[in-house]
Amino acid sequence: MTRQNPLTLATPIKSSEIENLEFLLLKMRGDLENGVNEEFENLGTIHYLRLVVLKSKDPEGNVFPGIPTRFVFSTDYDGDEEQHLKDLAAKTPSFLDKLYSCCEGYPATNARTTENRLAYLKQWRIKSAAFFAGAPGRTLPQIKQENNLRNYIWHFINSGNWKNKSPGEIHKAIKENVLGQSEFQWVKEKAKLPSENWLGMAMLGLILLVLLPFIIIWILILHFVHEINDKPLGKTPSQIDATHTRKLEEYEDLHNQNQFTQFLIMRPGFMRLVTFFGLMAFAKGLINNLFVKGKLMDIPTIHFARWIIMDDNKHMLFFSNFDGSWQQYLGDFIDKSGWGLTGIWSNTENFPKTNYLFTGGAYDAEHFLAWSRYYQIPTAVWYCAYPNLSIKNVMNNTYIRNEIMETPSEQASEKFLKRF
Amino acid sequence: METLDLHDIQGYIVRGYKHMKFSRYVLLHITDATAAKKFIGDIADSITNVTHFPKTNCLNIAFTAAGLRALGMKESNISNFSREFSEGMTTPHRQRLLADFDSSDPQKWRWGGPNNTEPHLLLMVFGTDEPTTLSYYTQLEQQFTAAGMKDIFQIDGLTLKFNKEHFGFRDGISQPIIKGTDRNGPPEDYVNAGEFIMGYKNEYNVYPDTPILEENQGDVSALPLDPMGTGKKDIGRNGSYMVLRQLQQDVEGYWTFMNERTKNEDGSVNVAESNKLASKMMGRWPSGAPLVRFPDKDPCGEDKDDDYYTKFFNYQDNDKDGLKCPFGSHIRRTNPRDNFEDNGQKQSWKLTRRHRVIRRARLYGCPIAGSPTNFIPETEVGLMFTCFNSDISRQFEFISYTWANYPKFLQLYNDPDPVTGIREVPVPGTEQNFTIPDTPVNKYITGMKSFITTRGGAYLFFPSITTINYLTTI
Question: Which residues contact residue B205 at a Cβ distance below 8 angstroms, ignoring those fewer than 6 apart?
Fold first, then answer.
């Protein structure tokens, strides 16, 4: 099974070139909306690509001293990072040159080689603290192939006459037809799918149980030392700068999927940091063992998400790619995993008033939604390789592919046919 | 339970004025703020609140953001209203959420669009019949004309027998019931007042965002303080946001489509099948009876005005697979009841309550209750869609985008709401279908067509009586 991974590069922009880069990105965004996407499709492994100009300041405009404005290049891709970086350097040189000639230390025009491009990229890598893939193991070619298969079968079913046929007979007819098509020979091999690792979950549970007394004491100290003194933002949605929100909305709901980028400031202190990394470890445990079937904390719309801690643990960057609107996404977070969200994000500044790490916070819906917008920053360019597929579609397509090769019971055949 | 200040809340949000069969909506443009404020002051005492039960006429009033500006409200105060309201319905982003494209493009609207005179104020006049309404309206007209207000759009609304809309379906069933009012209905329909009326707790158990005065202006003495404790005056309390959209209905196209897709082999109309297809898309039969409870045929040969036939149902107990009521049908997606995605029943009811609106549709044009055999109206017909909510983004826009227009709803691939969500020109490279779960294979209605066109629209503030009086002092 090929894994999907996150790449994040954060590179200082030459201060004289910030505006030029922003202009270039704006043009790239426009071209992309008009279907110019060869640079992104070239590799055949990039599910999502996101480019961000990371201003070195908080939402009020206060500058972070000693940190330059950075250009963030990020992808969700198939395979390992080494190969991905090599591919980028070898197959998209003009794309990189265009972007990175605005950045500090990029090789001069006549001195660029695949090797020094690669070396340059490597030097700006940042690790993700946690990473979630909605459909783990599905490579980009596989997602596209499986969708073609689903569409083909859908048309086959819709154009047939199935009167007096049993579900089993219909399944058989579909299977025979698909196997007769030269372009679908790959279905003979089933896709490997991750499944829940209950042993891992039991281990995780055990560890938590052992640590529980310490966790309880920790949370109590956290509450009485930090939380009661923490300042929430205290704004409602109507009190957030409308120009800021409008700018974010310009790049929303253009497709059936959307992106979300937040740049947050960690609350200071050792306790906060330990709490945060503890929760990240817990999240990773859940992501690897439990959330392997299209849902993150029961939210069924997230394709990829990542948490990044940077600048000596001072800042956090959060990226996600999801189905549907911002309002639905944030609403789902509150409704389905408000506690988890609160546990993680309450370690960042101005988060709504939280008690005992997991309560309050996101459940204070009006203040939470306002806070979310407040720390959201514009994504300059966002590319999705399959904007017309929801994560549910992606999952369903793989199930179709795997179930087609089976010889199912009548009941299972009925279930199979319900997938269309 | 919180006690509502019923005398301070305008009546239309709680009561549909069913016995007021005739209505006239008029959109006004203010030219003289002082005179306009005097006019509002003059009619303030006649505005119907929830505790009034007038015999012949009702009157309600709403304002656009431009209207508040025209009355002299400061920008800093207008910007504390919800952004949806202060920016209006026609921004590019909102156009995408509401799918106002092609013929429905705000550029082509008759009112409320960027090419129309700005509406400032909406008067809604209701009466038991046409003459009573119009004689009352004429008095008002003399007053607002004298106050220098220009009538930029007016439209008369009707209520048909059994509350049918022009496609022929009973409308306005299963409304949420605001807790703290005297209405009755199924327990799951009771919703916290704050979902619809500002100043009370909503379904998150917090106070909804409310417009507060950033800078005091006018006589603020009667205004309450912001419940969130900022110490500022609240002009939202007992008020709501009102969504108004003029939706033209192509009744002929609608029934021609249904007839065409279900015709007999000899080409003749199959009335029963045509009716059934239209009902599968709606999720209810023309009488309002839900398919979940009556999957095979409409139980009301003669329409009955009886809650028994139209209410009291859920999806998980009786129709988990959508075999009776398709997942993609209009009523199942715009009010998923106990079947909100894959949540359990109790959680679903809870989540659904966070996305409801109070609807108040009135029909315009020569009345027709469409059917497979009667579908050619004498004039243009449609409805004035009206709804109330305290968070336009989480309620009206969420229902429109996430539930109705979004083709990826639940596990679907290419299925927007078959009644309200179909685009006139599909997004290039995509199809628009309607999936009817069936055995052994689902049925697919492909090449769905749009039969509704937006002709105008606005987001309005539907203030409390206190705020209406306050506005005359700014």
Answer: B192
Task: Let me know: does B435 contact B218? Beta carbons within 8 Å.
Answer: no
What is the β-pairing status of strands B177-178 and B190-191? Answer: parallel
Start-to-end Cα distance in chain B: 34
Average pLDDT over residues A222-238: 94
pLDDT single digits (tens) B249-295? 999 999 999 999 999 999 999 999 999 999 999 999 999 999 999 99
Contact B440 A414 (CB under 8 A): yes
Domain-wise residue ranges, chain A: 140-190+390-417, 198-377
Query: What angle do helix axes A270-289 and A326-345 make, rounded to 10 degrees?
Result: 120
**Pairwise CB contact (< 8 Å): A324 & B429:** no
* CB-based contact A325 B398, cutoff 8 Å: yes
- Size of chain A, expressed as the number of residues it contains: 420
Instruction: Determine contact, residues B121/B31, Cβ cutoff 8 Å.
Output: no
The complex's ipTM works out to 0.93
Beta bridge partners of A354: A360
Distance CA A366, CA A351 (A): 12
Contact between A162 and B441 using a beta-carbon 8 Å cutoff = yes
The answer to whether the CB of A352 falls within 8 A of the CB of A233 is yes
CB < 8 Å to B81, chain A: 238
Paired residues of B249 in beta bridges:
B381, B452
Closest CA relative to residue A311, chosen from A266, A244, A277, A274: A266
- Taking the C-alpha atoms of residue B115 and residue B95, their distance in angstroms, rounded to an integer, is 15
Q: Which of B61-65, B98-102, B159-163, B402-406 has the lowest mean pLDDT?
A: B159-163
Q: How close is the nearest chain A Cα to the Cα of B268, in Å? A: 22
Joined tokens for residue B316: 């998980």
Distances in Å between the alpha carbon of B189 and those of A307, B185, B186, B311, B348?
A: 40, 7, 6, 10, 13
Which pLDDT tens digit goes with each residue over A391-401?
999 999 999 99
- Rg of chain B on CA atoms, in Å: 22
Give contacts of B228 with chain A, Cβ < 8 Å. Answer: 236
SS3 B10: strand
Count the neighbouring beta carbons within 10 Å of the beta carbon of residue B25: 22
Return left, alpha or beta for B118; rule: phi > 0 is left, psi -120 to 50 is alpha, else beta: beta
CB contact under 8 A, A236 and B429: no
pLDDT band at residue B308 under the 50/70/90 scheme: confident
Interface residue A328 vs chain B (CB under 8 A): yes
If 0-12 CB within 10 Å is exposed, 13-18 middle and 19+ buried, where does residue B346 land? exposed
> How far is Cα B129 from Cα B157, in angstroms, rounded to an integer?
11
The answer to whether the CB of B121 falls within 8 A of the CB of B33 is no
Structure tokens at B112: 């409320």
Number of other CB atoms surrounding residue B54 within 10 Å: 15
Residue A200 has phi, psi (to 5 degrees) of -60, -40
In A, minimum Cα distance to B322 occurs at A418
Q: Could you give the CA distance from residue B176 to residue A15 in angstroms, rounded to a whole number?
A: 56
CA atoms of A10 and B264, how far apart (whole Å):
65
> Which residues, in sequence order, are bridge partners of residue B73?
none
For chain B, what's the residue count?
474
Distance CA B48, CA B136 (A): 14
B235 close to B213: Cβ distance less than 8 angstroms: yes
What 3-state DSSP class applies to B85? helix
Tell me the two tokens of residue A184.
Answer: 């679908």
Query: Going by C-beta distance under 8 Å and a sequence separation of 6 or more, which residues neighbour residue A44?
Result: A140, A141
Percent of chain A with pLDDT strictly greater than 90 = 96
B284 DSSP β-pair partners: B290
Residue of B nearest to A419 (CA): B411
Residue B215: Cβ within 10 Å count? 9
